[in-house]
Amino acid sequence: MGGVHARLGAAAGIPVTDPTDRLPHPAARTDLAAGEALKGDRRSGDEGGVDGPEDQLGEGPPDDLIEGPTHDLTESLKDGMSGGLSPFAGWTWRRRGLLIAYIVLGAAGIAAWTRHVASAPHLDVRWRATTSGQLELVRSDVPSLLLHESSVLLGVTSPATGFVPLDAQVLRRSLRWVIDDADRVDQQKMQTALAEVLRAQRPVTLVFENGSQAPVTPVARGLASLSPLFWMLYAFAAALALLAGIVLIGNPVGRNWLFALAAWCQTGNLLMIGTESTLDLGLAEPFASASMPMHMAFDLATAAAIVGTACLHPRRLRGAPVIAVVTAGAAIVLPVLYLAGRLTNAWWWTQACVILFGVGVIGLLSWSYRIEPHPFALVLRRFGILTVASWTLLTVAIASSDQMPGLPHNVADIASMIWYVFLGSQLLLVPFLAQTHHALREFSLLAAICTVATSLDLLFVSVFDLSPFAALTLSLFSSLVVYSSARQWFLDQLLGSSKATGERVFEQLYRISREAQAQPQRCRTLLARLVGDLFEPLQIQVVEHRFSRTRVASDGSSMLVPMPLLGDTAASPGGSVLLRFAQGGRRLFSSEDARLSDRIVEELRRAVNFDRAVEQGRSEERLRIAQDLHDDIGARLLTLMYKASSTEMEDYARHTLQDLKTLTRGLATADHRLSHASGEWKSDLSHRLTAAQVALTWTFTFDEDVLLTATLWSAFTRILRELASNVIAHAGARHVAIDFRLAQDRVELQVVDDGNGRHPGEWAHGLGLGGVRKRVRQLGGTVEWQQAEPCGIICRVVVPALSSRE
Amino acid sequence: MAVKVLIVEDNPVARSFLSRVVRESFSDTLSITEAGDLETARRLIGPLRAEVEPFDPYKLILVDLELPDGNGMELLAELVRYPATKIVTTLYSDDDHLFPALQCGADGYLLKEDRFEVLVEELQKIVRGQPPLSPAIARRLLTHFRQGASSAPNSGLSNHSAAPNPVSSGLQSSRPVPLGNHPPLDHERLTPRESEVLTYLSKGFTIKEIASLMGIKWFTVNDHIKSIYKKLNVSSRAEAAVLASKQGLV
């Protein structure tokens, strides 16, 4: 499998390009792996800017069919097929090994860290912040503290360190969300002191406001007492890290490195938040000093990495290196300055910087979309807007509630935690955009709403001065209203909405399947039209390779719909229809679209096959009737003819027999080619006219050698024969000129004799000419007889629209 | 000595009608035998042995295609080497029925619904070697010979004894019978003139018109038609021989 670069890792949407593979030629790197991860760009960064066909596709007018890349596209699609469906198909052992090593290392790291957290010294006491900013003991299982419930704590003493005063600030789980620099330094000092007291693992004495003291020994908390929240956050972080590893090992190119970086930073954030959630009194070392710089670095690095990916995907933007250097510089400089103690208002700097990066991402994606209407950019921009907006809201809420004692700090921690979960869920979602992962999408949306709810809660408390309970109720209520009313709209917006209603789909499918039944050879065009109408893509293209099922490719920007296989494989059009950029590039193809297309193709196939079966049954039945008529009635008519008492009777019987033969032949044979039919007409007519000693001039012209249906063939055969019979029987002509023309679907037949017929208006139309009139009328045409000069009759038959008479 | 004629036809009225046609057509003394079905016909003709000339054979055999105990083509196929002029009499004027009959070695065909005079004329022509050729059959002949020629290039390596399609299997088939994989012999190729004649015939031109279009005499056109017939017959005879030798009959 040389040069397989676009495998269709549909199931898990994992880019699987082996970096060690050598390219046959750059154009083969068609970016069409199904469900390829966000950053799985094959022509980016460290690949030296190899231009794939996608670039050429993007720059042309959107709706024209590009000839050039089609071949490569098809080739790589074929290669993709041979890669199989498993996401790990085509993974070399080296890569599998790497992934396994990554998982083992990661799991070991997390396990070690969990062990460390579980063994941290801890006082088994539940505390609460009072409105005056002091610590109140809520509940404890330690016997010596039972008496001190609802007492206010002043501090702890231990023989080694002396008295450490404590206030409600120690309950803050993370220093990241302390706004004021001085506050943070104070808290950090208090936390460090407390941590030292606890780390000694010797009995300490709690000093209460009412003067009482209680000795208590800090103990390791043990794995069992870790909260469910801790485990959930850790599991979430592990999933994120695993995804980062898979994406990166699958295709270690520039944008995947950036994606992995963002995912790892968020993993770090989530691990820290998880750990912090377990610490109920004081942050253990190294959290007290590391919390702020680490969180800050993680946040800034994530934002910078996302800016970088926006530069590279879905399009590589021109100023990418400059932007990347600037953002990376900012993300490095700020934490370094903070560590060096030279950054004042660190919290504000961080928040502002993240917002700035977020706005930058939105701008970059808009720019990218303008260059090439890749719906991925649009979807990512929607994500970006949602994320940045919630971050800004969170910032405002926390900033405005900073000076409120008590509850807001908790809420601020929770709000920020939920925001991180929201961001993490988006990172998890992005590689699977083309698939429908309802659960994940709903989860992400829920996280977003929760961020909004908690932020609103903070805002209500601080700005409107509501009581905590009222604020909570109000914010929950308003968030629920927003969630339930806008949920569907949100979800549609996330992936782009589909305008195709069920009614429209049904109507189109019905119409197209009828057309396909009538003309199976046009199936290709019809299917392309149907899916085109349905998804309104910017480009439709027919590729040669036929897939067994519809698949979504290139991050959901493209979809490949196979042609239906009709009954006989020889006549079936092969190939697939390639759609790119659904709804004018505003929407991604989802696996639901693929399922719908599969159903459509199946329905089309069924409709055509059913109609074929019906047609076959009908033709068999016709054949049987024809055979019976011919054999039974024909033999009797023949006998009648032989036994006829007079020439008239004999001729009449012969005539009838000939009509019967025309009829049965019309029944038994499906289609007659016009040129073939003309030969037979000419031969038949000259045979008969010669026998009657009438000369025939026969001219026959046609612009298209159409297939005459049995009806048309038999109608024309009988019209011609009847007109000739008439000439033979009544005109007494010596010469007949028959002129048959087919031009632009219009038939003009002219029969001119030089006989003694006159005054056609006065003719009594017997069986013969009446029959001609009837047949011409059935064909939707006109017939007229005129006197010719100097003698004879002209008969003109005009059928204006031949093909409409089927 | 009377010329022996055999008429195989199940309809007694048609039988006597055809007798009249035959009597009218020839001035010779005729001894006409009539048969109502294939079995009677076979009995009358007697045993067929390839290497022995039949004693006092029928000179003219008229065979209806639709017979109570089978298809007339079966008889034609058996009589491939029988030294008689064999004529198909039928109501079926379409090539689907007639072409296989011609392949089975018929020398011509008569359409039973034609007038008495027309039939007489046609019969005389056939016996004289001017068989009829309808446009549809001309088209089929063109296809037939073209296929024989086109199968040539890739046949060089193939086994000559590869089974050709047996003639008898083509009885109900509307497809022209392919000629197997052997390279085309002379009798399987049409001369350019013959092809031209067939092309004109397939377009419905009469013999006279063809003669004037090609700038030749009308009897030359007829010679071409005769030759085409012979080629078809010879080719089917060759096929029959291959078939017979495969079945151990010869």
Any descriptors?
heterodimer, A: 806 residues, alpha+beta, B: 250 residues, five-stranded parallel sheet, two-stranded antiparallel ribbon, 12% strand
Task: Describe the overall structure.
- The complex is a heterodimer of chains A (806) and B (250).
- The two termini of chain A are 52 Å apart.
- In chain A, α1 crosses α2 (68-82), α10 runs antiparallel to α11 and α12 (438-463) runs antiparallel to α13 (468-495).
- Chain A is rod-shaped.
- In chain A, a hairpin with a 4-residue loop joins β6 and β7.
- Chain A is of the alpha+beta class and 806 residues long.
- Chain A has 21 helices and 19 strands.
- Chain A is 56% helix and 12% strand.
- Chain B has 250 residues and is α/β, with parallel strands linked by helices.
- Chain B contains nine helices and seven strands; from the N terminus they run βαβαβββαβαβααααα.
- Chain B has helices at residues 12-25, 38-45, 72-78, 95-103, 116-128, 135-150, 192-202, 207-214, 218-246; strands at 3-8, 30-35, 60-64, 66-67, 70-71, 85-90, 108-111.
- In chain B, the strands form two sheets. In chain B, strands 2-1-3-6-7 form a five-stranded parallel sheet, with helices on both faces.
- In chain B, β1, α1 and β2 form a beta-alpha-beta unit.
- The model of chain B is unreliable at 149-184 (pLDDT under 50).
- The interface between A and B is medium-sized, with 27 and 23 residues.
